[in-house]
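Course assignment 3, question 2. Fill in each field.
Student: A.L.
Task: Predict the tertiary structure for the chain below.
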Amino acid sequence: MGEQATIIDFLGASLRGLEASGRPLLSPREQDVADDIAASLDRELETMVSGLEAVASCQQEDDDDAVEEELPPFEAFCVGLKRIGGTLIPHLFDEFKVLCAKHSAPVGPFDWIIRARADAFVAYLLQVAQVHGLAFDDSIERVGKNEQIVLAHLGADLRMLMQRELDKLEG
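Answer field:
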């Protein structure tokens, strides 16, 4: 298996995509605020990813959800990543709001900062699912049709969560 993209690689790709979208130019003061918010969120994102990578094993929580207990290991792993995303994506947005409030800055002119980081985190979680999810299922050696469908659902769920958080910023 070749070299894996890092969260920094995903962030760079997200930022390049946003540059092409024609976001507005910032004043020098706004740029200083944007730089501080971005640096703080980058540190938070690195902390989140480091924490995830430090986890030696990912086991499902014991709960009363019998359907989940019947899932194949790859799907169960993806369910776990969806839970992780469901907790950490809103956390990242909360951090963004705190940082904007700290600078007495409205979130609107700086929403591209959180959009890029959330998008990078979603891409990172999808990579983790694809690469490491196979390790949890001895019955599969590569991502097949069923796994592709599970990955597509995970990606859609994480992007919907990200969009809900973005919508809350605007609302």
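Instructor remarks: Residues 73 and 136 are 6 Å apart (CA to CA). The radius of gyration is 18 Å.
Grade: pending
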